[in-house]
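protien #1 (seq + structre)
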Amino acid sequence: MSKLNLNTVNGVCYGVLGDNLPPRSEVVQLLKSQGIGAMRIYYPDKEALDALRGSGIAIIVDVGDSGAVANLASNPSAAGDWVRDNVEAYWPSVIIRYITVGNELPAGDMGLILPAMQNVHKALVSAGLSSSIKVSTAIKMDVVANTFPPSHGVFRPDVQQFMAPIARFLANTVSPLLVNVYPYVSYRENPRDISLNYATFQPGTTVRDSDSGLTYTNLFNAMVDAVYAALEKAGTPNVRIAVSETGWPSAGGFAATAENAMNHNQGVIDNVKNGTPKRPGPLETYVFAMFNENQQTGDETRRHFGLFNPDKTPAYPITPYPRPAVQSIGVCYGMVGNDLPSRSEVVQMYVSLGINRMRIYNPDREALDALRNSGIDLILDAGGFDTVSYLAASSSNAASWVHDNISPYYPAVNIKYIAVGNEVVGGTTESILPAMRNVNSALAAAGIGGIKVSTAVKSDVIANSYPPSAGVFAYPYMNGIAQYLASTGAPLLANVYPYFAYAGNPREISLNYATFQPGTTVRDDGNGLTYTNLFDAMVDCIYAALEKADAGNVRVVVSESGWPSAEGIGASMDNARAYNQGLIDHVGRGTPKRPGQMEAYIFAMFNENQKTGAATERHFGLFYPNKSPVYQIAFSN
């Protein structure tokens, strides 16, 4: 069976209207074998929920039909019971991402949606789950009028009274609007004006929206951006869209062929990592449906939307969208939390997401054991300031440390760098270089030659950071470290945070410049180079300092970088997503001073609830402790 890698699309819709479908447990195994990381189910199917326990598959779960919505709308205690029976009974072993209150409800029932959503949300608040599980509703495209051009999109007058407060609720709870987007339906209804190529992601059609200036090459993006325009006109421009259904039938009606279905769904798979012209970046999307369902009612096409036949064979071939191994992006795995997954689960997350580099901040034995033969490259921190002093004190101390923390694991654990100290300050800075020398000697004595020894520094070891060419080390000890790294061929590990630079000076530094967004160009008259983002400027400042320390051949590895999603100046999900996606997409190109692939590590894998310091420190995670994403990121470069 050909492998259909839908991780970038995020998920498929699992309908069960068939009398010949596989058991729920086999379906979950099929999802896992195909690399499908998320699914939607249309009611709280207990057999499916049980099969999903521990699978790592994130789900959208619908509350049920309009009767179920009406019950939740009129009865807050019913919402509490529903959350208890269908969420708390499975969470967190089942990763529930969204609860859908109503699927394509008609205008006559739309007044039920908001009170039902509010009651379910309140029940989640009472259960302590509202930050992890979001409540939304799934709408048809026909709630939007004036969809061409996309910038004219507006909620229909007869549903505006419902959609505007729903959108405000979503904005207030930081939840997405779920939208069922079917270019097939639009094409079938108007094949004279809509070309088949445009509807199925094939080349040959370009449509320009003269009001927005944006250009569209496929109908799917235009439809999504029409909904974004409607949200803007409703006063909620920050609400994100998740496409809760899209697909194309392979038989049973006009233009319903295996070839057209393959082209459309392949186009979705290849397109969503880029987002739309109006909202570039990953677009969370669910393909309808997993199977051809022989008991679907309505026209014949409804029974032919499946990616798979009931016997689990593909309905038509889909070329996998391979998520490339992330060659230059790693993620820092901090453990300062009391609700984090087990080390083995975390390693499996890295593997399933294609993240093949990790940093840990001490030689945690459970993590090191879990990393054996995983193929993940590792930065291993020696430990805190006391460990740096201990390693500097004697060569025998370093030998003991290597004996206990490196030899039992290497090479089954692919330890790439040892970080002797992280952002060391004060008198301990004088111990960094002797500690590095001792560790290198201990590695050599143990016959281990493949591990480089370095230290991780903050950006404040650099003085004169603007323009980048003026960069110079602020402390004399750094010159000795730089020259030692040059002699051993090791990189300098640098923690680079445009967030802190921006938060400290938002008047002078533009948010776009700090988050890899277009609109700002800065020229360094000292070297003639032009910068379009703050990250590059900060890294090149370090390169300038290395050159001035006669260590111009030392490579910089960015050992930490990230952006918080809450609790601070500029700390939001949108900004965090923009920054971290920008970093992932950018590092393959390097900096103006050092073009080429750069190695960088995002901080951090999880929101860590026991981090001390500013509140932002607890919100740098890409994932919640339940392993659901804080926001959508595509790990490719």
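ok now protien #2
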Amino acid sequence: METEPPLYPMAGATGPQGDEDRLGVPDGPEAPLDELVGAYPNYNEEEEERRYYRRKRLGVLKNVLAASAGGMLTYGVYLGLLQMQLILHYDETYREVKYGNMGLPDIDSKMLMGINVTPIAALLYTPVLIRMAQKYHEYSHYKEQDGQGLKQRPPRGSHAPYLLVFQAIFYSFFHLSFACAQLPMIYFLNHYLYDLNHTLYNVQSCGTNSHGILSGFNKTVLRTLPRSGNLIVVESVLMAVAFLAMLLVLGLCGAAYRPTEEIDLRSVGWGNIFQLPFKHVRDYRLRHLVPFFIYSGFEVLFACTGIALGYGVCSVGLERLAYLLVAYSLGASAASLLGLLGLWLPRPVPLVAGAGVHLLLTFVLFFWAPVPRVLQHSWILYVAAALWGVGSALNKTGLSTLLGILYEDKERQDFIFTIYHWWQAVAIFTVYLGSSLPMKAKLAVLLVTLVAAAVSYLRMEQKLRRGVAPRQPRIPRPQHKVRGYRYLEEDNSDESDAEGEHGDGAEEEAPPAGPRPGPELAGLGRRPCPYEQAQGGDGPEEQ
């Protein structure tokens, strides 16, 4: 059986003619240096370039899937622990046994206060998916970029289709975290709960006629207290899953975070970092989207406290809470893929469609009061939870995609998403403060906020069609060079050529139109990609 010859002949190997090849050039130790270190005779530069960028695209897809799965597991563990601890601390017998006479009868209220403040940690959010979409567009259209010139920036909005696909993938995974969070409830805590005849014995009204959260709900919901050893095992398993999710993100998509650090925040100054999110509010696009940011926080909390508790648990019992949230999770996860319709439909359609679904459901819930301890209407609750998840998915996917399209500049995305999640955190905390309001008042606030958000967003789109230019603050230039572990070389400094000539603090000016004067000047300020480093050339500038 004959063996196939290698694709690339090994340097120094003896050819079929002994020590000389077909051209008479000696082989082996006596071969010329050019023959040993030169290019392979069968080397296809175009094919190697195509394979290189295909590997880069697959790497981006791997990062998206790893980040999505890691986010799903991490948030699922957080929600699962939160839900289990809230139910345990709600039971007055559990609190008395655990805390005794420590003077903490309202430990559940104190926990809720801390839980609703924690979303402020969203200020640290980094919109990695947007930059993955921009890199994927770059790797997919590398030939067009070479033809247009290495210094020319891709057209604005060219990465939008990839961004929309990545957001749909991420949120389809992320919304499954609500279903994953119910596993401890279904397989562990449900075995210790009383049935609805005990927990709902004093409940008189539900739904739109209710006041506060579960008014009249029994203070004892546990038939027997879980053993401490069993609780430790369940919590240890959840923490192990969170640890594996962290390893998944760090191991598979850790490299995705390196090219995203386009500015050195330390050299910009912490004062500017604190001011820039507020200065971006000058942009009318962001001001018109603030009502949607607030509503985005309202609707998620209403799904968990209004529909799941005020309508669901209040009428069909605590033992069915997990299944209601699973219905919400599956509806939201499936509907996240509906965001792909934005590839063919006008941009406002997904966001307005999600608002329309919630508007219809809010009207229905405003006039519906389920009867406590009656299970005949339970299917209506599951349908309502699933449809609310559909609206939530279209809301989250549409908002994130819209922000990624409107703000393509990498140095602005952190500040824009900081504002987005800060308003969400404020809305979540406001829901906690108004938890004692009647259900009709909550629905009215939700309805007014939704209408205001939809009208404000459509007004923004109208201004964009008229060509109204937004006002954006200038990102300060770095004040000095940083010799940190990421800035060891002169080429990696944040200081531009103009700064070196005019001094620190010089404002960035637009480059003159027309081609560069020569190939040497065209290479200034350009960062070669790994493939071009191997070829000895320069790469396109990171915009």
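The mean pLDDT is 75.
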